Fold this protein.
Amino acid sequence: MKIARPFGDNGKQAENWSVNLLHPYPGNVSVVGDCFKLLGYVGQERRVVLVIGYEHNPPKISLSPLFKAFEVVACDVCGIHLSERSEISRSELIHPIHQTLRVAAWEILGRLA
């Protein structure tokens, strides 16, 4: 599970905030790295990665391109077979910066052939 926040609590754009999703190497702390770790897990449980994201309402920086970029990197670059994205959204949060919550999840189905 990772958090994606393009803006800090101070309202300034965060630096390197998208790296937590996209760094495409095993052994790191990105969501792609988590996918590699979960692929190596031996067990009957289903494997899922989840991203909790926050946006302004309307978004100053939309999380949609980041979610799509994660899917492309995981599938097309790293050969990880993901399910379709499951996503929920909640608006009108009371935080002045993080006004909309978006939660996205993907099941890790295995390696692509």
Summary: The longest strand covers residues 100-111. Residues 64-77 form the longest helix (14 residues). Helices lie at 19-22, 31-39, 64-77. The mean pLDDT is 94.
